[in-house]
Specification:
The complex is a heterodimer of chains A (196) and B (608). Chain A has 196 residues and is mainly α. In chain A, 72% of the residues lie in helices and 0% in strands. The longest helix of chain B is centred in the first third of the chain and has 37 residues. In chain B, helix 4 crosses helix 14, helix 5 packs antiparallel against helix 6 and helix 7 packs antiparallel against helix 8. The chains are: A mainly alpha (196), B mainly alpha (608). At the A-B interface, helix 1 and helix 4 of A face helix 5, helix 6, helix 7 and helix 8 of B.
Chain lengths: 196, 608
């Protein structure tokens, strides 16, 4: 990709990992730190009492299945690209994108369900217990949207025959990020289930 | 100017063709939206200097108030307008002044200005890379910072004034717009600006780490890296791990302010009326803030550790004493910085047992810090010292670090902190150890690498005048503050004349203010020297300090790509100064052992 300075590749690489891939891991670490802050704040705050207990929306389980499935299709897309199976690649990318969208729609309806149960983000009757739920899902959703944008870019590239076994970097980065977003959600889901 | 085009495709690239590809860049590509790490470094430097003067100016205004609380400041009306009421400084604007002074100095000058300048400039040059891993992300990092700067600068001029809740922006004060003027629009802009600032730091930090890990030249192992690079590398890791936490805290604060949540708010009465917010915890914000806040002070000071180590070794003409101990102590400090945050919170009513755990961890930091100080002094010991302006600042840095560090041991004790918390003792401590010391490290770096940045030398005599005035001013300002603090004089107070106990310190406060104005004035000597030397300074040679590191093997004015030919290969560590048997008193890193047979040590014979 032309984002990388030419200097890379001129001499043999010191650690054998592409700089952009390495950068992506670092970005992932910073996102992990953000959620570590949110979830530890959640635990600390909950331990102090005055905490509103409520039922998690049931649709979250369906969403979790959706995002796990999208990780599978993303991996299949990656494997298809490696084998130059371009029609499979496109189908799987589209499928991943739709599953990602479906997940977001599902999260939206989870919010709707919470609002119906009078669990609000802000306002006079809100409690940090509910607000935290919105923040965790919201910030995760924001990152998922960035993932979808990147996925769309990969889809466009794949339609232009720019993703194949000799040009794997884009889809590799996308796969790593997508798996991370899926993993992050599963962590959040388990976290919310346990600390409830 | 030699220039290497590094934007062409890898497939058609051959090393010997490098001179032939001259890619014509227009003014904007070359100086404004440049992806060249050296240009971006200078952009950060200019922005940092600008912010330094803004932050310094704010401190002079509040020092006027503190030094002469009874005086009238009608002469400030042309600048401050309605913030001067009947010749008196508005008390809420005073709070905004200290808040903005802290924010600007800590984040915009000593984080962005320092790391942004020297990490960007030195990492590719010293590890032997053509540029950063991603020039685009690097450019983005500066321009996001620029945007954040504009927003912060704008907030100085709005009607309700800039943020006024202290640079730590503790809620509930910062969360409730009705609390003080500074918690209104100014605070909103502060939060937006800081969120952008964090994004900028993450973009930069990701680049620094990736570049150090991936793009080192042939032979440049991690244990042959100059200590500057180690320092920048660890700084970037600290930033990567701690800034996202501040972003989380800022986000929750934004929600509390603008979306009606109650993360940090509970049971608050304003003018006798209860607010609806329940269930929040103000202490939670302090935990989140200081989890960033403490590593942040090391983000400020670590780069200068590296700069000072490099300058002291070069100008003592001696190998740095304890190279690996220097790396180890920086690592130790970096790790410890994440487990000591609650020492800022000893008096928040935390469990005393927890307090002693944090006290214990805090005091351990004295060990690696002492290792560093010992090694710097041992490097100076019997060295063939050359007192350049940069060297003066480096030595003074060690002095400031000792005097400021010692009081850190006092403050780190949870029982002593009960008396000293939020007094001028704390102000004196952190201004010496991370404020002034980091500034001295930054000046040291600017004087030392100026020839590489601009191809010209700064004036040494003006440098000495700048140094002595600044050095004197710093001690004259902060030494007396220790006494004020021990007497219980509280920080952040607009006026202390109403307190019988503190009236006796009027003269001392005036004295501090005079010294502060002297110190601020001295910076204009630096500014003049800096700007004048860019255009009219004596032309520099390729290696004016006879230094070993790779940046001095580039042409005097390196183009984009740094080396016109092949990137040099590294054979030795960067501190072969005054090696017995060597022809000269320095052997650059790119000189192979086969060329220095007279000075090779027994174990280096194998490498010939």
């Amino acid at each position: 990709m032309d984002m990388v300075a030419k200097s890379f590749g001129e001499d043999e690489n010191t650690v054998g990992i592409h700089p952009l891939k390495f950068s992506l891991w670092l970005i992932i670490i910073s996102i992990i730190m953000m959620f570590a802050a949110f979830t530890s704040a959640y635990i600390v705050r909950r331990a102090e009492g005055n905490w509103l207990e409520y039922d998690l929306p049931n649709i979250l389980l369906i969403n979790t299945v959706l995002i796990a499935l999208s990780s599978v299709t993303m991996q299949l897309a990656h494997n298809a690209a490696a084998k130059n199976n371009l029609s499979m690649l496109r189908m799987m990318l589209f499928l991943t994108f739709s599953l990602g969208l479906a997940f977001l729609v599902g999260q939206w309806s989870a919010w709707g369900e919470m609002v119906d149960n009078n669990i609000f983000f802000g306002g006079e009757t809100s409690n940090p217990a509910g607000s935290f739920m919105y923040v965790l899902t919201g910030v995760h959703g924001f990152h998922l949207i960035t993932g979808l944008i990147y996925l769309a870019a990969v889809i466009v590239a794949s339609l232009k025959y720019k993703v194949h076994s000799k040009k794997m970097l884009r889809i590799q980065l996308c796969t790593i990020y997508w798996h991370f977003l899926g993993g992050l959600w599963i962590y959040l889901y388990i976290f919310l289930r346990i600390n409830h | 100017m030699s220039s290497t085009d590094i934007s062409i495709n890898k497939d058609v690239h051959h090393a010997h063709e490098e001179h032939d590809h001259h890619h014509d860049q227009n003014f904007f590509e070359k100086y404004i939206f440049s992806q060249d790490h050296k240009v971006i470094a200078k952009q950060f430097l200019f922005a940092g200097i600008f912010w330094g003067f803004v932050g310094g100016f704010l401190s002079v205004i509040f020092r006027l108030q503190l030094g002469w609380p009874e005086a009238t400041f009608t002469f400030l009306e042309p600048i401050l307008g309605e913030w001067i009421v009947n010749g008196k400084l508005d008390s809420e604007f005073y709070l905004a002044l200290v808040t903005m002074h802290g924010t600007i100095m800590v984040f915009f000058v000593l984080t962005a200005g320092l790391s942004g300048t020297f990490s960007n400039f030195l990492i590719p040059l010293q590890i032997g890379a053509r540029d950063m891993a991603s020039g685009f992300m690097n450019m983005l990092s500066f321009w996001v910072f620029f945007l954040s700067s504009i927003i912060m600068f704008m907030s100085l001029f709005i009607e309700t004034g800039p943020a006024g809740g202290g640079w730590t922006v503790y809620p509930p004060l910062s969360a409730l717009p009705q609390a003080i003027l500074g918690s209104g629009l100014g605070m909103t802009l502060w939060l937006i600006s800081m969120a952008l600032f964090i994004v900028s730091q993450l973009l930069g930090g990701v680049n620094y780490i990736t570049t150090v890990i991936n793009l080192r030249t042939r032979g440049m192992s991690m244990t042959k890296l100059p200590l500057t690079i180690w320092a920048f590398f660890l700084t970037a890791i600290l930033g990567l791990l701690s800034f996202p936490v501040l972003l989380s805290a800022a986000l929750l604060l934004i929600f509390d302010r603008s979306f009606g949540t109650s993360f940090f708010l509970s049971d608050i009465y304003i003018a006798g009326e209860a607010l609806a917010n329940t269930g929040g915890s103000a202490i939670l914000f302090q935990h989140l803030f200081w989890f960033l806040g403490h590593p942040e002070v090391y983000i400020v000071i670590l780069p200068t550790f590296g700069i000072v180590s490099e300058v002291i070794a070069t100008n003592s003409r001696k190998p740095i004493f304890g190279y690996r101990a220097m790396i180890g102590s920086m690592l130790g400090i970096a790790i410890l910085s994440f487990v000591v945050w609650a020492h800022h919170m000893f008096v928040t009513g935390m469990n005393p047992f927890l307090g002693s755990v944090f006290m214990f961890l805090t005091l351990i930091i004295a060990v690696p810090s002492a290792v560093k100080v010992f090694n710097w002094i041992a490097t100076l010991w019997r060295g063939n010292i050359r007192f350049t302006a940069a060297m003066m600042f480096a030595i003074a840095f060690v002095s400031l670090f000792i005097s400021g560090g010692l009081t850190g041991i006092i403050l780190g004790n949870s029982s002593l902190d009960i008396q000293l918390h939020d007094t001028y003792f704390v102000i004196a401590h952190f201004h010496l150890v991370m404020g002034a010391a980091a500034f001295f490290g930054m000046f040291c770096g600017i004087y030392h690498w100026f020839p590489k940045m601009f191809g010209r030398m700064m004036d040494e005599k003006l440098g000495f005048v700048h140094f002595w005035l600044t050095f004197l001013a710093v001690y004259l300002v902060f030494m007396p503050m220790h006494y004020l603090g021990i007497a219980g004089f509280p920080r952040r107070y607009y006026s202390w004349t109403g307190f019988e106990a503190f009236n006796m310190f009027a003269d001392m406060n005036s004295f501090i203010s005079i010294a502060a104005i002297l110190g601020f004035t001295a910076q204009f000597i630096f500014l003049f020297n800096f700007i004048f030397s860019i255009f009219k300074g004596r032309r520099a040679t390729a290696n004016p300090w006879h230094s070993n590191t790779l940046e001095w093997t580039t042409p005097v004015n390196p183009g984009h790509g740094n080396w016109p030919g092949e990137i040099p290969t590294v054979y030795r560590w960067p501190y072969d100064y005054s090696k017995p048997g060597a022809v000269e008193d320095y052997i650059p890193q790119n000189v192979p052992f086969s060329q220095t047979q007279s000075s090779n040590l027994p174990h280096e014979r194998d490498l010939e």
